[in-house]
């Protein structure tokens, strides 16, 4: 069994919107692990939930220079600021990142736009093809069914929760294995075609968890953990606080998930907020003991908000300097922690894009990495782990599902009544009769191919 698992792991590939590729054979560049790339809400009235503070964008103000100061004062409240819905704009912004790497290296970006927020897998395909980069998208629980009523205490509650769990799990498994929009394994034959436009998901999440971890979210996380455990795909979680992470990881483990392939997004933001309430020493101790020492992965991706110089946002969000200090402190305690850190720019709104005065996707390579290199405890090997090797390990999980067996067509022998598979040269037919083999054919021939009723009497 161990040998089979190692063999499967060796065959595992990384799934992108353009299909699977072998990370060992392909030039796999720097990986941005938590970004928003493109969204396509069904309606302009759609609400967009911020992953940073769980507030809802609802103010309808055009994104113009005249309104820029107003938007910058409370950016998460403005719908137009939170909508990244232009393919041309996305391409232009990503080019700023890809232009900073070698020509023969492909940058990799994970788009964390959920289906509820308007995930646009077709647009991601077009962007990936146009720019020659790798784009990956995640699967989340389906949005088409209403939320379960968790206050209902009648006897049907457990069965309703189980139905929801099964529906969520099957939906995410299909998007990972067979592709978005597929309904069953019957679609598999269409996915194996070189011309297939089907897009498969590459990871589970992001799953946003609220303070108090309500029952409805517990039911969803059970499905996420079960799918992750069955597929070995990474799971991305957004926790409400640093102290809540330990309990969430316990829940993932108890539900069949894999902590070592669970990514705690916005880890720098969680650390910053806890340090604001207590102090950084205590916050780092919690991160070490309750997250890293348990094997989970942390993603530093929230510093770019304060880098955009919003009003007093350096109080609410971590800075580039604080992330550098955090990484340095962690690696000074144990260099092996470098294997559990991934990086990203954390772009989620227009104001962070270079076109609108933000630092954009290149902030990781142009600002964060040079500052990390200045720290004595952080080596080039550590940065390679954070930017490339750790993501490569996390994302290398996809193994082609077995091809479904072709349904077999069976005939019934006119003489012995046994069912058999009609293999050419091994069965015979005459008039309206079929025979499973020469024995039954001879038996019928001896009675002159009489009708079966008479043949049986003979």
UniProtKB/TrEMBL annotation:
UniProt keyword annotations, A-Z: Hydrolase, Metal-binding
Name of the molecule in the record: Vms1-associating treble clef domain-containing protein
Keyword Metal-binding recorded: yes
Family in the record: Belongs to the metallo-dependent hydrolases superfamily. Phosphotriesterase family.
Any GO MF annotation of the entry: zinc ion binding
N6-carboxylysine PTM positions: 197
A Pfam family assignment: VATC
InterPro entries associated with the record: Metal_Hydrolase, Phosphotriesterase, VATC
Entry keyword annotation includes Metal-binding: yes
Species for this entry: Cylindrotheca closterium
Necessary cofactors: a divalent metal cation
Residues annotated as domain Vms1-associating treble clef: 410-451
